[in-house]
TrEMBL record:
<dbReference type="InterPro" id="IPR028357">
    <property type="entry name" value="UDPglc_DH_bac"/>
</dbReference>
<dbReference type="InterPro" id="IPR008927">
    <property type="entry name" value="6-PGluconate_DH-like_C_sf"/>
</dbReference>
<comment type="pathway">
    <text>Nucleotide-sugar biosynthesis; UDP-alpha-D-glucuronate biosynthesis; UDP-alpha-D-glucuronate from UDP-alpha-D-glucose: step 1/1.</text>
</comment>
<dbReference type="InterPro" id="IPR017476">
    <property type="entry name" value="UDP-Glc/GDP-Man"/>
</dbReference>
<dbReference type="Pfam" id="PF03721">
    <property type="entry name" value="UDPG_MGDP_dh_N"/>
</dbReference>
<dbReference type="Pfam" id="PF00984">
    <property type="entry name" value="UDPG_MGDP_dh"/>
</dbReference>
<feature type="binding site">
    <location>
        <position position="211"/>
    </location>
    <ligand>
        <name>substrate</name>
    </ligand>
</feature>
<keyword id="KW-0520">NAD</keyword>
<feature type="active site" description="Nucleophile">
    <location>
        <position position="267"/>
    </location>
</feature>
<dbReference type="Pfam" id="PF03720">
    <property type="entry name" value="UDPG_MGDP_dh_C"/>
</dbReference>
<feature type="binding site">
    <location>
        <position position="38"/>
    </location>
    <ligand>
        <name>NAD(+)</name>
    </ligand>
</feature>
<dbReference type="InterPro" id="IPR036220">
    <property type="entry name" value="UDP-Glc/GDP-Man_DH_C_sf"/>
</dbReference>
<feature type="binding site">
    <location>
        <position position="125"/>
    </location>
    <ligand>
        <name>NAD(+)</name>
    </ligand>
</feature>
<dbReference type="InterPro" id="IPR014027">
    <property type="entry name" value="UDP-Glc/GDP-Man_DH_C"/>
</dbReference>
<dbReference type="GO" id="GO:0051287">
    <property type="term" value="F:NAD binding"/>
</dbReference>
<dbReference type="InterPro" id="IPR014026">
    <property type="entry name" value="UDP-Glc/GDP-Man_DH_dimer"/>
</dbReference>
<feature type="domain" description="UDP-glucose/GDP-mannose dehydrogenase C-terminal">
    <location>
        <begin position="323"/>
        <end position="424"/>
    </location>
</feature>
Length: 437
């Protein structure tokens, strides 16, 4: 089989990464988006978000001549043999369900121009049943309806490790309805498969479900250890030691058992909610009812962090200066979607505290969404004259803060470590009142 030409529709986080990596791996790739500004920036060699290693690869891909960008769906349909749908499925306003507007709009826009044999591959995280629905939609509107097929290839990349996760993922999942679709997908991932990456070939619905099942499991691990943290706090036990001891059991493993402020971002929180909403629709809401508890435990971490800061501020934060270290939902990212850090900072501000935030990458995004907060130039700058310091995102540079240097600038030597990122002994030795979640 010939090497397929690829289009990647939606050049946000997932799509841009996929397009760039596939071009670097040797494919002819066309990136497509309705956002002209985004397309112009990418075509000019600029990655519009923070992702280690990606800007260098974009330059390389553009120089190779294999990667181009367009806003034209007609051009995409003409160019591509395999079309990857990588648009977002955010949480609907006023509901827990996924908003399918962008998926439906992009598949419709593409299908109208599909006049020849093509495979349309969904990568977005969607409610199970979407691929079947889109198959019917494509059949209805594509001029070459009989020659167009749908497949599903869920994406598991993590922000901050997007390049690594795309070039050498733990596994690939191909949801297909025919042997032809499987062959096309194998051809579209040939260099990745050649590295020995395992592939699970299955039906469309299972492929869609693998993604939400995986994210639900990860969320469950995090909330599990955070639930243990609540119990530890009530008994004086140490949840970090507990997590380490659990991790020796290879059946449990240590990953995603880091206790702290909990999960946020554009995926885990909305995915478990959309999964619950979809399961309700399917009449199996009870089967995933435990996810409501997972969400609840996660939200309680944010409230508990606010409580700890309040305690250290003497029972009331009104008029107190609080330094918030971190804004991104996790380190090595500038993403502030459902960021626990900004949730906590915003709540403290509403309670009357003067909150100064510092984050190594997410400052611009944070300022846009939270103009009411103050922003420092550095961690030390944010901590100047603070009554309480609270670490909310575990950036490496925060782990490396010298407690003595910070002690010299603050008004009160009180710190809440919301991510178990600091060495309690070192901070206490420098005279700090150190509290962790
Ligand atoms: C997550 C999944 O890990 C990816 O596999 C998936 O592809 C992606 O969602 C997606 O659906 O697109 P991501 O949102 O980039 O990736 O971030 P994670 O590394 O999973 O972290 C999620 C949140 O959990 C962060 O807020 C992090 O601070 C928190 N976390 C993670 C913990 O609180 N404790 C842990 O032990 C691990």
């Amino acid at each position: 089989m010939t090497t397929p030409r690829l289009t990647v529709i939606g050049t946000g986080y997932l799509g841009a990464t996929h397009a760039i990596c596939m071009a670097v791996l040797g494919f002819e790739v066309l990136g497509v988006d309705v956002d002209e500004q985004k397309i112009a920036r990418l075509a000019a060699g600029e990655v519009p978000f923070f992702e280690p290693g990606l800007p260098e690869l974009l330059t390389k891909a553009l120089e190779s001549g294999r990667l181009r960008f367009t806003t034209s769906f007609a051009e995409a349909a003409e160019f591509g043999d395999v079309h990857f749908i990588c648009v977002g499925t955010p949480q609907q306003k006023g509901s827990h369900a996924a908003d399918m507007t962008y998926v439906d709009a992009s598949v419709t826009a593409l299908a109208r121009h599909l006049t020849r044999k093509a495979l349309v591959v969904g990568k977005s995280t969607v409610p199970v049943g979407t691929a079947a629905r889109l198959t019917a939609l494509v059949k209805e509107i594509a001029p070459a309806a009989d020659e167009v097929e749908l497949a599903w290839n869920p994406e598991f990349l993590r922000e901050g490790f997007a390049v690594e996760d795309t070039m050498k993922p733990d596994r690939l999942v191909f949801g297909v309805a025919s042997g032809w679709a499987e062959e096309r997908l194998r051809a579209a991932f040939e260099p990745v498969l050649a590295q020995g990456v395992p592939v699970k070939v299955t039906d469309l619905a299972t492929a869609e479900l693998v993604k939400v099942a995986a994210n639900s499991f990860l969320a469950t691990k995090i909330s599990y250890i955070n639930a243990m943290a609540e119990v530890c706090e009530a008994t004086g036990a140490d949840v970090s030691d507990l997590a380490e001891a659990l991790a020796f059991d290879t059946r449990i493993g240590g990953r995603f058992l880091r206790p702290g402020l909990g999960f946020g971002g554009g995926c885990l929180p909305k995915d478990i909610r959309a999964f619950m909403a979809r399961a309700e629709e399917l009449g199996v809401g009870q089967a995933v009812g435990f996810l409501r508890e997972i969400d609840g435990i996660n939200q309680r971490r944010r409230a508990r962090t606010v409580d700890l800061v309040t305690e250290l501020a003497g029972g009331d934060v009104a008029g107190k200066k609080v330094a918030a270290l971190g804004a991104a939902f996790k380190p090595d990212s500038d993403d502030i979607r459902d960021a626990p850090a900004l949730d906590v900072a915003g709540t403290l501000h509403r309670m009357g505290a003067e909150v100064t935030v510092f984050d190594p990458a997410a400052m611009e995004n944070a300022k846009r969404v939270h103009p009411e907060l103050a922003y420092g130039e550095s961690a030390l700058d944010a901590a100047r004259d603070a009554d309480v310091v609270v670490l909310l995102t575990e950036w490496t540079e925060f782990r490396a803060i010298d407690p003595a240097a910070m002690a010299a600038v603050v008004a009160g030597k009180s710190i809440v470590d919301g991510r178990h990122a600091l060495d309690p002994a070192a901070w206490r030795a420098a005279g700090w009142e150190y509290r962790a979640l």
